[in-house]
Write a structure and sequence with these properties.
elongated; 608 residues; two-stranded antiparallel ribbon; 70% helix; 32 helices; mainly alpha
């Protein structure tokens, strides 16, 4: 009788597996793949001639060699791997488990973890296929990457049931899975169990435990683990282990402790790498130790380790933040001389730093150099340039940059529009303000509190208080909550327009909404009261200000003393001056001018 073969198309994970294996996979709900294979149902003793057998063996060996060569060359695509898997699983006799392991490994490296699990399920459905530790470890790794570490423990049970001995990679897969899920306590318990029961481990095992401890913030235990490894002497901690602890301390800004670990590393003849210096230089910069950071950069180069773009960016970033722009520029030059291509981050940091100190010329030079280098500026780069141009009153140039953004395919954000709108508001170019506001909303961007505050400020500055109130109502209609800046602008605007009643109403409304007035708000109200010679109310406002734990500044005292002098209240003015001096508020130039102006008048009035 001829052996019958039936072609079956299966969709995983629906597959009945022998023994308890089906229990494991019934729990694993994964994306389905379609794979065809041959299932043999007849066990009749059919004679197959030697030639056919030899041809099958040759074909099997050919496929194994093909899989090996393609795996080594890295030329296998996912579709190639699945096609080969479909071919080898249909063959009789079956190729060695080695061929299957290579295919599982290739698909796993492509990060198609669920596909590997489905392939493994099909393999385990054949009695002819005897999985080895490598097969099961690959499966465990994929389950762990799918955040299914509990199922990986089931696979470990299967390994033991099959009489296979787990190797360090098997146990490391479990530890890595627990660590990646943040289960460091369970990982430590498993590690302790491994030690007590003689399960194999290696230096990577310690690396996993140390990184897990560092990730959980338990750097003390990580250092204890490092000491334990050194004392046991079975394994020598590698650079990865030391780097993990050094980076942990640097991120906590405990750079002194990081340097102690670094010195221990050197004493044990473990050569640092670029990652070591990255962490230390970043850590030193974060605590303001610029000279030490630069010293480490030199030491790194002397050791023959080439600093990468990240290291230069770290130094340039911290130098820019510290105002050391010239030194940051020098590093930029060194970076280019060493053949490193500055990134968009490098250029953006320098452009932003020059913009911050008002060096528009240098900022535009770097922007042009950036574009000439073939690096497209990002939104942060453009916003930095636009912001400084608007602050310098060069709003039309900023508008031209906005057009350049559109040309470069960089979409403006709310900050971009806010900067230019405020710039046009300052120069009273209302047509452009309206146009930009409409353009902003048409692009799907929603005006925020800053947008409306800019418009309210501009209207109040021109004493167009009705339009300012309209903006306030629009703001509220859009579910935007006015803040202290909004109300301060409005109160000052109404005060400057002599609309005292409206200003006080806004003050009360602000208080009712739970927004605490600041010194600027009180100063606006005090100034308006003094201009109307309502000095008693102004003094009452000063008392309310102090009652709210706000300290009057020189503007507060200048306004009040000037108001009292204008009202011929010399004794009160003198008393307030004494109080101002007692509180450590020193008179400014404006105050001295007023004293020169009013004191003779006060004396003549007194003599009269």
């Amino acid at each position: 009788m001829v052996m019958k073969a039936k072609r079956i198309t299966t969709t995983s994970p629906v597959l009945a597996l022998p023994g308890n294996y089906s229990i494991l996979f019934s729990l694993c709900k994964l994306p389905r793949i379609r794979i065809c294979f041959i299932s043999c149902y007849s066990t009749s003793a059919t004679l197959i001639d030697d030639k056919t057998t030899r041809m099958a063996v040759i074909r099997s060996m050919y496929l194994e060699n093909l899989i090996r060569d393609k795996s080594k060359s890295g030329s296998l695509t996912l579709q190639d791997a699945l096609s080969l898997f479909d071919s080898v699983i249909q063959m009789r006799p079956l190729p060695s488990i080695w061929a299957f392991n290579h295919l599982l490994g290739v698909v796993s490296k492509m990060k198609h973890y669920s596909t590997v699990v489905s392939m493994s399920k099909l393999m385990l459905g054949f009695k002819e296929i005897q999985p080895d530790v490598s097969t099961m470890t690959t499966l465990m790794n994929c389950l762990c990457n799918l955040k299914k570490v509990d199922l990986s423990f089931s696979v470990l049970a299967m390994i033991l049931k099959l009489g296979l001995r787990p190797d360090p990679y098997t146990m490391n897969a479990l530890l890595l899975g627990l660590r990646n899920e943040g289960k460091i306590i369970e990982a430590m318990e498993l590690f302790q169990n491994m030690l007590e029961n003689g399960y194999p481990y290696n230096e990577c095992t310690y690396n996993i435990i140390v990184s897990g401890l560092c990730n959980s913030g338990d750097l003390g235990s990580a250092v204890d683990m490092l000491k334990e490894i050194n004392e046991m002497g079975r394994f020598k901690p590698n650079v990865v282990c030391y780097n993990t602890i050094i980076d942990g301390f640097c991120k906590e800004r405990s750079v002194d402790k990081a340097l102690i670990v670094f010195r221990d590393m050197l004493d044990r003849s473990i050569e640092p790498n670029v990652v070591t210096f990255n962490s230390l230089i970043h850590g030193l910069c974060s605590v303001g130790q610029w000279n030490e950071a630069k010293s480490f950069l030199s030491g790194m180069i002397n050791r023959g380790i080439s600093p990468d773009v990240y290291i230069f960016n770290t130094l340039i970033s911290h130098l820019c933040k510290g105002g050391e722009i010239q030194e940051a520029t020098s590093l930029f030059i060194v970076m280019s001389q060493r053949g490193l291509k500055p990134s968009v981050v490098t250029y953006t940091m320098l452009i932003h730093a020059f913009c911050k100190i008002g060096e528009w010329g240098h900022a535009t030079n770097f922007l042009q150099k950036m574009i000439d280098s073939g690096i497209s500026p990002n939104i942060v780069t453009f916003n930095s340039v636009i912001d400084i141009l608007c602050k310098e009153g060069k709003t039309w140039k900023a508008f031209n940059i906005l057009e350049l953004m559109a040309h470069k395919g960089v979409k403006p954000d709310v900050f971009t529009y806010n900067s230019i709108i405020l710039g046009f508001c300052h120069s009273g170019q209302w047509k452009e303000v309206t146009s930009l506001f409409n353009r902003m909303t048409s692009e799907g961007l929603h005006p925020d509190v800053v947008t409306f505050n800019s418009l309210i400020y501009a209207f109040c500055k021109e004493k167009r208080t009705k339009e300012a109130i309209t903006m306030l109502e629009q703001m509220i209609h859009r579910d935007l909550k006015p803040n202290i800046v909004t109300y301060s602008f409005l109160i000052r605007g109404f005060c400057n327009s002599g609309q005292w009643a409206e200003a006080t109403n806004l003050f009360s409304r602000m208080m009712d909404e739970g927004i605490n007035p600041d010194v600027v708000t009180f100063n606006s109200l005090i100034n308006a009261l003094c201009k109307e010679k309502r000095t008693e109310e102004a003094i009452t406002m000063l008392g309310l200000m102090i009652q709210r734990d706000l300290k009057p500044d020189i503007v507060t005292y200048n306004t009040l003393i000037h108001g009292l002098c204008n009202s011929d209240q010399w004794e009160e003015a003198t008393s307030l001056f004494t109080r101002m001096m007692d509180e450590g508020v020193n008179p400014d130039v404006l105050f001295n001018i007023w004293i020169v102006q009013f004191r003779p008048m006060g004396r003549s009035d007194k003599r009269a």
